[in-house]
Amino acid sequence: MGEDTDSTPTLNHRGFLPDHNYVTEADIISTVEFNHTGELLATGDKGGRVVIFQREPESKTEPFSQGEYNVYSTFQSHEPEFDYLKSLEIEEKINKIRWLPQQNAAHFLLSTNDKTIKLWKVSERDKRPEGYNLKDEEGRIKDISTVTSLQVPVLKPMDLMVEVTPRRVFANAHTYHINSISVNSDYETYMSADDLRINLWHLDITDRSFNIVDIKPANMEDLTEVITAAEFHPYHCNLFVYSSSKGTLRLCDMREAALCDKHSKLFEEPEDPSARSFFSEIISSVSDVKFSHSGRYLLTRDYLTAKVWDLNMESKPLETYQVHDYLRSKLCSLYENDCIFDKFECAWNGSDSVIMTGAYNNFFRMFDRNTKRDVTLEASRESSKPRAVLKPRRVCAAGGKRRKDDISVDSLDFTKNVHIIRHAHTHAHILSHSQEMPKTHTYTHNQNSYTPFHSLLNLLLSLPELKGPRQG
After folding, report:
1. Strand runs (DSSP E) across 195-296, as ranges?
2. Could you give the residue ranges of the DSSP H alpha helices within 253-388?
3. I want to staple 113 with a disulfide (CB 3.0 to 4.6 A). Which of 78, 238, 330, 411 is the partner?
4. Is 224 helix (H, G, I), strand (E, B) or coil?
């Protein structure tokens, strides 16, 4: 990392002034998530902390300020724990964050580590009550015998204060690590998935959940696959999908049976025997699955490809996009350094016409479903300014002809992989780098908050859409 040019002091998440080159493991961002309007963005890190950013409104004096996100609130969501029965440490790292649709002035979000899910309320307070009859100004109870008259309490303005309060704790329901949470379209229930089970929760009930999928075999030696991701349908509250390490997708209907071990539909691409290799099963594992906004399609990501599936066609994907096919020749070395087990996320744009997913070397890929055009872009410090226009990048295979600005596959940095989220109603993207920079914030003395500097989420980009007609 190079030296920061900003001279203002930076604070780490513990509130100290660290060395600019010192990076703690707790500072690494592990998940990011927009709320439904795109006004708020929540990030979770390996230290168990959640930082909420708020989008700045556009002003006449600063017409390009919209799209910049400043820190709105920070709170400690999870703490490290120890399971004494199993002699296991439970990390505080935040695995997933999901916002609930806003129904009043307050915001609600779910955050989870490996074992415990928590529901948080985020609210604003800019008035305080004064004039209590039974309390003094410091909040102490008065002696009733001294109260000789009554007054009407009034609300007086105060500096805006953001309060984050825990509302529910959903614990002790998962034996294995939670990899997914998804809020149902009924806004009353949500599901949580680990390697072998999926549980259905009611948002108001914390002491019990309902197991809707259980793929654990009677003998663990017979285990052949694990659950990798799960998501509810955007409109039909009875439908959900989950993916597996074998590259399959199972669509389940909760109306058919209480336990959805028998799926309604199985989406699986037939394997080409001539292309089978030692790595076939590893690279076919699905790391992420997303319903389209229309609810008609599924987007999945495995190690080398992104695929679009039609819910009405189970036999093969509707579309297959090569994300970094140039890595096929390097699978041996990627297996030796464990990079072949890296997980990438994927996302739709607002009209379901463009898909987006991450790659190595801080690259990410966009594919236009209509024109079949694709582009590789790089998320870097140099392009972290709002409204920045990114230059397309190109990776050439080893030994191939290189043009100016081309990057050889041998020079890729496999410690810098990009995870993606994209807001449904705008062209905004958040790119989270797994191992590039620490998450730091610049403290400005004339504000009562932090403003984002070179953070691990690094930037909110307004990227140019790929040219071509839109769907929907």
Report:
1. 197-202, 210-214, 227-232, 239-244, 249-253, 265-267, 288-291
2. 280-284, 331-336
3. 78
4. coil
